[in-house]
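As promised in the previous annual report, we have extended the structural survey to additional targets. Below is the entry for non-specific serine/threonine protein kinase.
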Amino acid sequence: MPSVNPDQSDKDSEPFVEIDPTGRYGRYTELLGSGAVKKVYRAFDQEEGIEVAWNQVKLRSFSNDPAMIDRLYSEVKIGDLGLAAIVGKSHSAHSILGTPEFMAPELYDEDYTELVDIYSFGMCVLEMVTLEIPYSECDNVAKIYKKVSSGIRPQSLSKVKDQEVKAFIERCLAQPRARPSAAELLKDSFFDEVDDDENEDGEVSS
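The corresponding structure token record, generated without further manual editing, is:
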């Protein structure tokens, strides 16, 4: 796409270096991450008024793979962080996808397993407990990326008063080698506490 510097209402605002054909998304120069065939830039959705990630893929890298080309055209739109990945027998994948606030650090390295879902689940629990989106203290995607990649926890975690709930979330957010699988997580006492709460509400378990 050609470089474009569109008219912006605030002359002092950061200029776009590129916009998509629809005129909705504008890309900044700031690079958030990169891999063998893709680069992820900070961008802005002019309709929603929010920052997004602009994912660029080198199509020539897949010139001999028609199936991948079809997949690219059916999925890698502006604002999406990557391709949905099919995890094989090695339990590892090599593409960036997801919402920055809920993405495990290893996703940015494009070398991860299904344990990234445990990390995201922990962030979801954190959001439900605090009623805040994780890393809401950050005002752009780049700052979220820097905190996540540095292992800095979201500020909302400090607002969790129940120590057992906090410990459960921390367990989900641990480094990959220390992060439990879904089967292991189901054995956590956190879920026993949830069952007890339901029974106290009058539901009798068989």
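Residues 23 and 46 are 8 Å apart (CA to CA). The radius of gyration is 20 Å. These points will be discussed at the next consortium meeting with the crystallography subgroup.
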